[in-house]
Amino acid sequence: MVISIIFFGVSYLLGTVILNIFKIHLSGIKNPLALVLGSTVITLAIFFLSFVFSLTFTCAFLVLFICLILSLVYYLKYPGTIKFQEKINLKTNFLKITCFIFLALIILLLFQKSIITSPNSVIAGNRIVWTDWPVHLAIISSFVHGNNFPPQNPLHSGSFLSYPFFSDFLSAVLQALGANLKSSLLVPGLILGFTALLIIYNFGKIITSSFRSILALFIAIFWGGLGFIYFFQDLLNSKNPLSVLLAPSHEYTFYSEKNLWFFSFLYSELLPQRAFLLGLPLFFSAVSLFIIGLVKKRKIYLLFSALITSLLPLFHFHSFLSLVFFLGIFTPLSLFSEFFEGGISKFKAAFHLILVYFVLPIVGFSLLQFPLFSSVNTSQIIHVNWGWMKNSENIFLFWFKNTGLFIPLFILGAWIFRRDTLKRNIAISASGLFVIPNIISFAPWPYDNLKILTYFYFIGSFYVAHALAHFAQKGIITKLLTVLIIISLTLSGIVEVFGVIGPKKNQFPLWSAKDFELAETIINNTEPNSIVLTAAIHDHPVAGIAGRKQVIGFPGNAWSWGFSDWLEREQDVRKMLIADSPFVTNLFRKYKIHYVLISDRELFFEKRTNEQYYLQNAVFVAGGTGYKLYRVLW
Fold first, then answer.
1. How far is Cα 606 from Cα 590, in angstroms, rounded to an integer?
2. What does the longest C-alpha to C-alpha distance in the chain come to?
3. Domain segments of the chain as ranges
4. Average pLDDT of each block of 10 consecutive residues along the chain (634 residues)?
5. Rounded CA separation 165/279 (Å)
6. What are 489's strand-pairing partners?
7. Strand-by-strand arrangement of the 121-124 sheet
8. Rounded distance, CA 68 to CA 64, Å?
């Protein structure tokens, strides 16, 4: 854990130096932005250096050491320019500090309880981690043990890794520096998750007051709709209410039988969707820099916003899409506002500023990244889908069930700000992040549009909080009603999160001592860039621990990433395991397979697995209890 903290400490120093060099001074946001910016720069530097030297301790340490020395030299030369902390009045900011400490503890518990590790086992602490994290662990292991440069998808061999992987590469860097598996996941989760909330909070102060921004943050991270109604029904109908209270029997924000799909942010987005760890802070940093740069006519702010926007596809594609949609609406609205309020001269000046310092840099940077995403089947990903996940339900009823009074309160908050040009434009632009995902799906499974709706909800929360605070000023009755509304907006999410971090010990085994033995055999007896024929499942230790590539992991993942050959690959894996055709070697050549593993997983996946074929036609390499590894010749 110490090495992970050192990494982020150096990242903070470097980020602060960069912001000072370019004279970016943003009250409140400077320190968290420095940490995110420094982490991003160091991670990218190690990534590109790893193309030459591979990801090793020496490579990662060298970059970290150089960044530390450069930062210290700058600090010694300009000692007054780096402030490790902004002055905080503890008395006047006691409530704010208490709230952020509480949120930090929630995030710490969330990540701490999500995975249980020992030298001989890895156990997921909840269902979401069991289903989602094996993908991330496979990507991490592919860099640590598989020398995966240039990056290929370890769960879809031969394909470029278009899945946003830099949060996972950061964890791989920490492991290369000596961090263990758990700390390489927990420390980035805690530090980047908390940093994201600080940046979002400071963005909120563009819209409303400090107190209302805190309230908005709580409303946003504990979203959940009306699922708490079913929680109380289960509580009343249970013979053991205490067990339901301590260990809820359903996920009340993700309850498909009741058509509830607005899954709790902390549990379904921040925890399992690791790309959000950098996507969230980068999105709100880019938006904040763009808005402040446009309002104050700061060219360097717009240029930095353009740089972050250009890098976002590498870190989180849905965050990039959300940013494009938001700024794609906000920019013309701002230009129109300049024209109507300041005339053609102000319009031309703003247009020139945006074009030269934002649009053109984005176009240049984005063109460099185009080849990275050209293999994705966009016709499978993008399609019309009315009403997100509403199915046949009335769209108004669907959204009321999933978000409660949030949308009416958002509209009310936007109406209150109707005469404030900037805040009105932000509200209209945020509305686009709700409307667009309700018409077009940007993934094979429309549910994934929740990643875009997340940004609508976060930005909208500041308008909701402002509307609630405005309403509460009318008298004691309205204050009580406001409290009840806040409870209704957050209770489902609170129940969901407490079910994850509460006293109940959920355990979903991922890998055992036997799996670690198998992975060690793979690492010691195969080349780092080997492709191994295995069962097409989501948690195979060949990829998850050993970092070798599979022909295909879980086919559902390949489908959701936009690969059109997922079914063909699964069928071909079965054919190769059955090996009853003289043309099976053609499939070995097609997928460039080096090794075949026959273990309990393969025998369970394909009951007709023909081990006799490999005994006679392949070279036995190594084996152990319940597994044998063969090298195929083609």
1. 20
2. 85
3. 2-118+162-204, 210-501, 512-631
4. 93 94 86 95 96 94 97 88 59 85 95 90 93 96 96 95 92 97 95 96 95 96 94 91 84 94 93 94 96 94 94 92 96 94 90 93 73 58 91 96 97 96 97 97 93 97 97 90 97 93 83 96 96 97 97 94 92 96 92 96 96 94 95 88
5. 11
6. none
7. 115-118, 121-124, 508-511
8. 6
Strand partners, 550: 532
373, two tokens? 């995403």
Amino acid at 631: R
The tokens of 423 are what?
A: 């805040």
The answer to whether the beta carbons of residues 357 and 306 sit under 8 Å apart is yes
DSSP 160: B
Write down the pTM of the prediction.
Answer: 0.94
What are the structure tokens assigned to 406, written together? 């949030």
User: Can the peptide bond before residue 281 be classed as cis, meaning omega within 30 degrees of 0?
Assistant: no
Instruction: List Cβ neighbours of 131 (8 Å cut-off, separation of 6 or more).
Output: 272, 538
Among all chains, which residue has been given the structure tokens 């209410």? 241
What are the structure tokens assigned to 353, written together?
Answer: 């500023």
Residue 280 has phi, psi (to 5 degrees) of -60, -55
Distance, in Å, from the CA atom of 569 to the CA atom of 581, rounded to the nearest integer, reads: 17
CA distance 605 to 25: 57
Q: Write the CB contacts of 74 (distance below 8 Å, at least 6 apart in sequence).
A: 17, 20, 21, 81, 82
